[in-house]
Fold:
Amino acid sequence: MEFDIFSPALILLIAAVLICLVKGHARTAVILVAPIITLWAIWQIPDGVQSTVKFLSYNIEPVEGSPLRRLFATIFAIMVFVGGLYSFRVARWYELAAAFAYAAGAIGVCFAGDLITLFLYWELMAIFSTIVVWCGGTPGARAAGIRYAIMHLLGGVVLKVGIEGVVVGTGSIQIQPMLATDFSTWMILIGILINAAAPPVSAWLADAYPESTPTGSVFLSAFTTKTAVLALILLFPGEPVLIGIGLFMVMYGIIFALLENDVRRILAYSVVNQVGFMVVAVGIGTEMALNGATAHAFAHIIYKALLFMSAGVVIYRTGKNKCMELGGLFRTMPLTCVCGIIGALAISSFPLTSGFTTKSMISQAAVDGNLVWVYMALTAASAGVFLHAGIKFPWFVFFQKDSGLRPKDAPWNMGLAMIIFASLCILLGIFPELLYSLLPYPVDYQPYTVGKVLFYLQLLLFSGLAFFVLLPLMKRTMTISLDTDWLWRRAAVSLVRIIEHVLSSIGEVIAVRRVSLQKFLHRMAINYLGQPHTSDSKERGVFARSWPVGTTALWIAGLLSAYVLLYYL
Amino acid sequence: MNDENKLHWLVRPSTIRKLWIGSSILLALTVLAQTVIYVKGYFGFDAWFGFGAVYGFVSCLVMVLVAKLLGLVLKRPQDYYDESENAQIPDSSHDKVKESSNGV
Structure:
């Protein structure tokens, strides 16, 4: 087949161009049909490397299939379809075109058979996701987009440095499991982790995503962090450092989400939290754990997009995005409310939702590895997820107090998109085999045992009790919380100012002293180098006189002995 | 009673009272169910009676308190960064240098 060097990503790229070129119903058709064709193309790719192209001296493998890669590409394609359905009537054409190109990058990464292809698609994602952030259109979105772009281009450079190092060191551009043992592999790991929103730069996610449009954040929530998870599964399975990083992300996400007032920022922090679960799983690295990470990424994209959709409808209808200004919306937005609650239950891994059947695999992997502390931390985090996302999000948006707002419910296309994803959340919760059969390794896992369900019900329901008991402590305030982005938004700016100030005061001193300095230098030059036209050598400057050869020899001898002494010191 | 009827049925005080009672019974049941249903513990202590309930409640309590304490340090007014972004217009220190050096 001559087509097998073309990645399914190209279909979405062409669609992105078409979205710019056509209008009206034709554009709608492109938005809705292209993801379906992409999905079809994804399932046409058999396992293994499909073709090799010689570029410079490298064997580029643009398309490589495997169950893992297909599964990630599948959920990305589904996401593009439902995201397109959700946004086509509201979003501007350039936002949709950028979102499609961004998704193309993500699907390209899924099938990248070598590090160079991976890097190219990686950068494609960085560029077009920045444009999606900029489509927010506000000054805040512009500034956040610039910070986002700097962070991801920087991450790209770090990744590229690592790739170059690995290519030079091993001579291979193959994507194969490695461990972070030397400089280059560490650089690759750091480059990927920046995209996964790992500490200390996790702040980019909660900084940028909430600044985009209500429709843009739905797309943004899906691709960047999950391609990073895929890259980690492909390149660093079983890298122990990931367990610690992942646990930090899990806790960080919960704590910051608890402090947050902005609805979408709560959801953004819970993206970090959920990706933390996957990073832990990749760090554990057993077949069960990698299955868990994959399944959880699949389920997570669905329920997180669902949550962002429900928040998006609220923002679209009310124009407000602060917990303090919202509340009581269940009266007029029953569909959005129910879908939001289903997404919230799924993210909290409530039994009968997709979160339960996938996240519990990660806990099981920790049990199998006899990692007591990891298991206990993940269990505590599951309780915390219910606290910060599972109850907090629906409670403050749809219940809480009566804000007096009576907005209309979602437009039909947004409602339909939410219904599709809400149904998928429940479908995968009731029939987990549908997903299990697609996972990279054979699954021998029974999510529903009576004891386990009871344990999780106790855990989650009592977290719910904790929420309502501690409600006075959780009063929202009109505040933001400082995150590590303070370092580059405030500290770095101040540092640059201080340096600028020091340099300019030095400049001022020099400017003032210049004349006297010039005179001083001139005097010195005449004193030491001056050569008045005279035959008497003694009237010349010190260094312009004729000196006896003996003096010169003495100086040379002195210098050489000093050199010898210094050499042996 | 008239006031109550104006409210949405879900937010009437009587409904909220019933919800609290209902949920309390549910919570009690999930713990009591452990007398009949065997919860398999992986590490011994996690099979203790009501462990899930206590662990869930306590870990949430700890997380909320940690968040509250961190909030004391980290919370800033809504427009904290907006100010800094406006203030990023470079001041005129450069120009001053230029002027003084031209003057010489």
Remarks:
- DSSP finds five helices and one strand in chain B.
